[in-house]
Design goal:
With 434 residues, the chain is of the alpha/beta class. It has 15 helices and 16 strands. A hairpin with a 5-residue loop joins strand 8 and strand 9. The structure holds pyridoxal-5'-phosphate.
Length: 434
């Protein structure tokens, strides 16, 4: 490839582009970023055609790999017919039929679908839905939210209030609504259960909802906890009349080995948020699902309307691709095959656990993580040394502090998965000695 073209791109990038979750001084002065030119399957390709196995499926979205030919074909076909129209009191085929199809694969009882355009807004809509539901259904005092220490639910101010990662909360703390951040079951089940019981005993009557990332707290380090916590949360929510919200933005669509993390405990929340893999990682598209009971709480005249709606909610391109995603799950047996793939990933990480530099290996479905021995926390740099080593070896493995993890596409070919695991092993060894 033409070196001057790369320089041209990087010059524009470094002069004008502000990257998310990126320390920009270090980026501008020290980083030689991967410049992605195209992607296919489980690989990203740079401007020179070098390939990099995408170890995190591009921020956990490309569950079917990149540029699945059926998804790109669906996208192109839709683009020639209808790229966008609003859902404000009118409708279109894609949104209507996808809503029906999503309900069919959702936990039973979640029969109403509200579209937004990313994970944060799927959860933001859930918060507002809960608050407005209580406000107009006889319990306006229910405004308190409960989430977990280490929780991550996205970027908007509303969901930032639910977030339990201090690094992300601190700058905005004065503006965030009060939320009880309880002990996470990922840090100890018994303590977490006791704290949840105590919280609801004391504040259940004024609590709107419990919001959880079911089974895996992703952003705070792939912290995994058992389904019994979800089961108990459902029981306690019912006992105190509190709504239960599952944020399945990361865990949904087979990431944990089942369609929904909720399925591991056969728990049905009152509200379920889905994004990322929902549109195969192609387009910003998200859904907030809920029950007939909550939906009916918004009937009865204009003043009871749900006052919420993003311009691109239910976008026809996203809807068409999202329908095709579900069709591929059926036709290619994605959930049926994910068990074998997850086993391979688990076995690979079991071997990594033998390294002196590694501790606390954990896996669930197509999530696998390890801690590098030493410092910890989101700002810890050890994971980034492994990241740099992995890039040299042909893999993109963005860490979370000291946590090196893999969340590859669910259908990553075995050969790519084995190569990825080998790269992680070599990079951990090289990163530790570097
Ligand atoms: C559990 C969870 N909820 C919400 C979000 C926010 O999604 P988005 O980045 O699409 O706004 C994320 C993003 O990683 C997430 O992991």
């Amino acid at each position: 490839m033409n070196a001057s073209h790369r320089e041209r791109v990087l010059r524009a990038d470094k002069q004008h582009l502000w990257h998310p979750y990126t320390a920009m001084d270090r980026y501008i002065d020290e980083t030689h970023p991967l410049v992605v030119a195209r992607a296919a399957g489980s690989r990203l390709y740079d401007l020179d055609g070098r390939s990099f196995i995408d170890g995190n499926a591009s921020w956990w979205t490309a569950l079917l790999g990149h540029n699945h030919p059926r998804l790109t074909a669906a996208l192109c076909a839709q683009a020639t017919e209808l790229c966008h129209t609003s859902l404000g009191g009118i409708t279109h085929e894609g949104a209507a039929l996808f809503a029906e199809e999503l309900v069919r694969v959702a936990p039973p009882g979640l029969s109403k679908v509200f579209f937004t355009d990313n994970g944060s807004t799927a959860v933001e809509a859930a918060i507002k839905l809960c608050v407005q539901y209580w406000a107009q259904n006889g319990a306006p005092e229910r405004t308190r939210f409960v989430s977990l220490k280490g929780a991550f639910h996205g970027e908007t101010l509303g969901v930032s209030a639910l977030g339990g990662m201090s690094e992300f909360r601190a700058p905005f703390a004065p503006l965030l609504f009060p939320c009880a951040h309880l002990a996470s079951p990922a840090d100890g089940l018994e303590v977490a259960l006791a704290e949840l019981e105590r919280e609801l005993e004391q504040h259940g009557a004024c609590t709107a909802a419990i919001v959880l990332e079911p089974l895996v707290q992703g952003a705070s380090g792939m912290r995994i906890y058992p389904p019994v916590y979800l089961v108990r949360a459902r029981e306690l929510a019912d006992a105190y009349g509190v709504l239960l919200v599952f944020d399945e933005v990361f865990t949904g669509y087979g990431r944990t080995g089942r369609m929904w993390a909720a399925d591991h405990g056969a728990v049905v929340p009152d509200v379920l948020c889905s994004a990322k893999g929902l549109s195969g990682g192609l387009l910003p598209f998200a859904a907030t699902l809920t029950t007939e009971r909550i939906f009916e709480g918004f009937l009865g005249g204009d003043s009871r309307t749900f006052f919420y709606g993003h311009t691109f909610a239910g976008n026809p391109l996203g809807a068409r691709v999202a329908r095709e995603v579900l069709a591929i799950y059926r036709d290619e047996g994605i959930l049926e095959n994910v068990g074998a793939k997850a086993r391979r990933l688990r076995e690979g990480f079991a071997k990594l656990s033998e390294l002196d530099q590694v501790e606390n290996v954990r896996t669930l479905g197509m999530v696998a993580a390890l801690d590098l021995v030493g410092g910890s926390g989101y700002l810890e740099r050890s994971g980034w040394r492994v990241y740099e080593e992995a890039l040299k070896r042909g893999a993109y493995v963005r860490p979370l502090g000291q946590v090196v993890y893999l969340t590859p596409p669910l259908n990553i070919p075995d050969a790519d998965l084995d190569e990825l695991l080998e790269i992680v092993r070599a990079s951990v060894l090289a990163g530790a000695s570097g």
